[in-house]
Write a structure and sequence with these properties.
α2 crosses α5. The protein contains eight helices and two strands, in the order ββαααααααα.
Length: about 170
């Protein structure tokens, strides 16, 4: 639905905007919301990460063998491979891949407002929904607590960081 001139209603001296924001998710079923969550955010991030991995592998192949070996050794110890000898093009592509993998995995955490909560709603027993709906307004606070007060995000992302390193640099 596009915002048009007919959306502006003037009456009693005050301008009001009606139908300015179309919310198709409210009219869609739960399965449609889950599909939109998975396809929209997660698949897009994974496709971007895949493209960036190919670009990073290309730029890594252009570097001297000693630098490639150093990247291989460094990736096994630290996780992130970002030292200046790798060149700016590799570091940008590698960082882009890591950020997109991070966003895809982070989005799957089943805490509102993240997309994982829509997936969780689909698989949870219907008897839990009333309690879940009471919890949803506080999801952002729980998300901040999980991110800043626990090491859960690092533990969750570590296997994916190692996988990206293996795909870019090699096992």
């Amino acid at each position: 639905m596009a915002l048009g001139v007919d959306s502006l209603v003037v009456g009693d001296g005050k301008a009001k905007i009606r139908d300015a924001i179309a919310l198709p998710a409210l009219n869609a079923g739960l399965f449609d919301m889950v599909r939109a969550s998975l396809v929209g955010a997660i698949l897009a991030n994974l496709l971007l990460a895949t493209a960036a991995i190919f670009v990073a592998r290309y730029f890594l192949g252009q570097l001297p063998a000693a630098t490639q070996q150093a990247a291989h050794v460094f990736s096994g110890t630290n996780g992130f491979v970002t030292f200046p000898q790798l060149g700016w093009a590799f570091r940008i592509a590698y960082s882009f891949a890591m950020v997109n993998v991070f966003l895809a995995v982070f989005n799957l955490i089943p805490v509102p407002p993240l997309d994982g909560s829509a997936v969780f709603e689909l698989v949870m027993p219907r008897s839990w929904l009333p309690g879940w709906y009471k919890f949803r307004p506080y999801g952002l606070l729980v998300l901040f607590a999980v991110v800043f007060w626990t090491g859960l995000v690092g533990v969750l992302l570590d296997p994916f960081i190692r996988t990206v390193n293996a795909l870019v640099i090699g096992p």
